Amino acid sequence: MLIRTFAAFIAVISAAGLFLALGCKSLPPSKPESQWTPQEARGAAVYHTACARCHYPTNTRGLNGPGLQAITKVPAMPSGAPPTDERLTNVILHGRNMMPGTSLDDQQLQDLLAYLHTL
Ligand code: HEC
C-alpha cells in the first residue's frame, strides 16, 4: 500500500517534470549561425561586446539579466512589455533597473536588432 502511494507520487512528479521540460523546449528554435545574414553576423558581434556578459543568447536562464533566447518571439519580455523593436531599442539605449544603457550608433543598433530576431 505504502509502495503504491509512493509509486503514484513518483508518477506525478515525473509527469510534472516532463511537462516542465517540454514547456522549456517549446520555445521556437534560434536561427543557426550558418544561416545568418551578414547583418545578423555583425549584430552577433555587437551582442558579444555589449550584452553577452549579462545575457545568455541560447537559453532563458538568468546570468546578470534574463537569457534572451526567443526574446522577439515571446508575447512578453520578463518585464511584461511586448518585445517590439521600439521597446528593445529603448531598453538597449537607456537600460532598465540594474541594466545600464549602451551607446550604439544607428548601424550597430539595427544590426543588433536583426541578431536579436534570430535568437
Ligand atoms: C551589466 C549587465 C547588463 C548588460 C551589459 C546588458 N543587460 Fe540587458 N538586462 C540586465 C538586467 C539586470 C535586466 C533586468 C532588468 C529589469 O527588468 O529589472 C536586463 C533586461 C534586459 C531585457 C528584458 C527587458 C524587459 O523588458 O524585460 C532585454 C531585452 C535586454 N536586457 C537586452 C539587452 C541587450 C540587447 C544588451 C546589449 C546591448 C543588454 N541587455 C546588456 C543586465 C544587462
TrEMBL record:
InterPro entries the record matches: Cyt_c-like_dom, Cyt_c-like_dom_sf, Cytochrome_c550/c551-like
Gene3D superfamilies in alphabetical order: Cytochrome c-like domain
Domain Cytochrome c: 38-119
Native source organism of the sequence: Occallatibacter riparius
Keyword Metal-binding assigned: yes
Organism taxonomic ancestry: Bacteria, Pseudomonadati, Acidobacteriota, Terriglobia, Terriglobales
Molecular functions (GO terms): electron transfer activity; heme binding; metal ion binding
Keywords, comma-separated and alphabetical: Electron transport, Heme, Iron, Metal-binding, Transport
Protein origin, superkingdom: Bacteria
Protein name: Cytochrome c
